[in-house]
Amino acid sequence: MQAVKLPLALVAGLAIGALGVPVLRAQPSSQGAYVVAELHVTDPAGFTDYVRREPASLAPYHGRVVARALPDVREGSAPDGIVEIIAFDSAQAANGWYNSPEYAKLMALRQKSATARLYLLNGVH
Prior knowledge:
Layout: H1 2-26, E1 33-41, H2 44-58, E2 64-69, E3 82-88, H3 91-98, H4 101-113, E4 114-122
Antiparallel strand pairs: 1-3, 1-4, 2-3
């Protein structure tokens, strides 16, 4: 009986492993990425134009603005202005957007209408 249990356990283990590998491969390899910007607006009209044009620059990289507001600070000192968070599917997509010719034109408008600190953060699961 013992001689039969071991081969059955091995066969069952191989079957479970064979079925499990495709499921593991189907999981997303990326945890997403976020661009976080601290923005101090110096030219409201210019910044409004930037905000209006920003979604078109994000679309090819599947980026989306998930927050843009004055922060409700709970600890530490507040940033000098608003905070914007842009979500991407991957850091590669975020970098693609930031380094794109489309965003280079828009960045010039942002730099004329606001001072900024930008961060790229990798997401976690």
